[in-house]
Write a structure and sequence with these properties.
- By secondary structure, the chain is of the alpha/beta class.
- The chain is built from 19 helices and 14 strands.
- The strands form three sheets. A six-stranded parallel β-sheet has the order 3-2-1-4-5-6, sandwiched between helices. Strands 11-10-9-12-13-14 form a six-stranded parallel β-sheet. A two-stranded parallel sheet has the order 7-8.
- α15 links the parallel β10 (about 360-365) and β11.
- The structure holds uridine-5'-diphosphate-xylopyranose.
């Protein structure tokens, strides 16, 4: 008999994981405490923009025409407890307000709600990003508070999906990491992931703390790569070098690799910034803060980029005040193929210029609604061309494909001045220069 799976929390991670589990052939029951989210998912809709996810939901959500019916949703914990052999916990762990540490309250409350309903053997699998030591604590809680006692086991299985590629990353992960205490948990997880493992995905079995640390270590490494290249961009700016060429050249070294070496206004989103901060906070609690002091520097290089972009814009406008200047901002989300504006460098730069008196008009292909909610006082335009109309300077701040396909001549005719600042280093300088634009990118020579 095939395993029955529940997924607790239906945000980015949970909604994608639930749909992917159904795609792998399992019967899946998803839970969220927000009934409106459940209602949307039951219609095959997602609360966020994620390529391919709605298609996957429509293929499996019960009650939708032509679906396999393998995926259902509920808000009822008792139903979850009775249904599942394996329960995935996919709730978020945001940064605590005003602190570096991560807020474990959603994970803790999910486990507390689930425990009384685990009446027989069950495996609870944490996927959320948590401070090292959490799994040990939660395993003890489950054993003590579940009617199943020691038969309610815990495992930790970090998730590495990227927004914009969530479906692809979940169905075809680079690796699967499981932190387990016993053979039963490993056996069940091998069954869950039999398809990707059969297709060659490495399956790494380890203990709780290592599994928890793999996730924070991976995100810290990625953040370090980005801040490293941004630090090189600063040096290039001072010494006249070209950071894009530098990245290309060092990237040819297999040991370094070419990915995540794109200089620009830095990283944002709901993961990298809060994960490195939570990691530092946890290391501090463990008395290992010295080991991670470099992450403070990674964070500050990253945050500095935003201010540097603002200064580049000021300089391009002749220095002095932004008052009365029209600034077009292309991009509001923290990355392309997402509508997520959490800790978005683009929106931060737009906001800083606006607060300094600039007349900012933002356009983003998918992030407009979220941006308007977060920053209602900025100007918004319905197209890139409309945003650029009458602008004294254009800032390219999120690397959407749509922006690479813009016609520089058409935009040039609409702008008040042909000055383009590329905060993501993804536009083609020659293309824009040929159309009469003064093109400036971070860490690259001016002409
Ligand atoms: C990240 C991790 O990649 C993923 O494995 C983890 O599960 C969650 O956190 P995500 O937040 O979706 O995923 O974004 P990612 O693709 O990592 O990009 C993060 C930020 O870095 C974006 O703002 C992006 O624009 C920026 N970035 C990325 C750069 O500035 N330069 C680069 O070279 C790459």
């Amino acid at each position: 008999m095939s395993l029955k799976i529940t997924v607790i929390g239906t945000g980015y991670l949970g909604a994608t994981h639930a749909a992917a589990m159904a795609e792998l052939g399992f019967e899946v029951l998803g839970l969220d405490v927000v009934p409106e989210k459940i209602a949307m998912l039951e219609r095959g809709e997602t609360p966020m923009y994620e390529p391919g996810l709605e298609e996957l939901l429509r293929r499996h959500v019960a009650g939708l025409e032509g679906s396999t019916g393998r995926l259902r949703f509920t808000t009822d914990w008792a139903e979850i407890g009775a249904f599942g052999d394996v329960h995935f916990v996919c709730v978020n762990t945001p940064q605590k307000h005003g602190e570096y540490a991560c807020d474990m309250s959603y994970v803790d409350s999910a486990i507390a709600s689930l425990a009384p309903h685990l009446r027989g053997p069950a495996l609870v699998v944490g996927k959320s990003t948590v401070p090292v030591g959490s799994a040990e604590r939660l395993a003890a809680y489950l054993a003590e508070h579940s009617p199943a006692g020691g038969d309610a086991e815990l495992a930790w299985n970090p998730e590495f999906l990227r927004e914009g590629f969530a479906v692809e990353d979940t169905l075809h992960p680079d690796r699967i990491v499981v932190g387990v205490r016993g053979e039963r948990a490993e056996k069940l997880l091998r069954e869950v992931y039999a398809t990707p493992v059969g297709e060659g995905t490495p399956f790494v079995v380890t203990d709780f703390p290592t599994a928890e640390l793999v996730k924070t270590a991976a995100n810290s490494f990625l953040a370090t790569k980005i801040s490293f290249i941004n630090a090189m961009a600063e040096v290039c700016e001072a010494g006249g070098g070209d950071v894009a060429k530098l990245a290309e050249a060092i990237g040819h070294d297999d040991r370094i690799g070419s990915k995540f070496l794109r200089a620009g206004i830095g990283f944002g989103g709901g993961c990298l910034p809060k994960d490195i901060r939570a990691f530092m906070a946890r290391a501090g609690e463990l008395g290992a803060d010295q080991a991670l002091t470099f992450l403070r520097e990674i964070d500050s290089i990253n945050m500095r980029r935003r201010g540097q972009m603002v200064e580049m814009a000021r300089e391009a406008l002749g220095g002095g005040s932004f008052l009365g200047k029209r600034v077009a901002v292309l991009g509001a989300t923290f990355k392309p193929d997402s509508d997520d504006v959490r800790d978005s460098p683009a929106l931060n730069v737009a906001g800083q210029i606006h607060l300094q008196g600039g007349q900012v008009t933002v356009y983003d292909p998918k992030g407009m609604d979220n941006a308007r909610r977060v920053f209602p006082t900025l100007g918004y335009a319905e197209t890139a061309l409309d945003a650029v109309r009458g602008a004294d300077v254009v800032l390219h701040l999120t690397e959407w494909r749509e922006f690479r396909e813009l016609d520089p001549a058409e935009l040039g005719a609409a702008a008040a001045a042909r000055v383009l600042l590329d905060g993501r280093n993804t536009l083609d300088p020659e293309l824009w220069r040929r159309a009469g634009w003064r093109y400036r990118a971070m860490g690259r020579p001016t002409a």
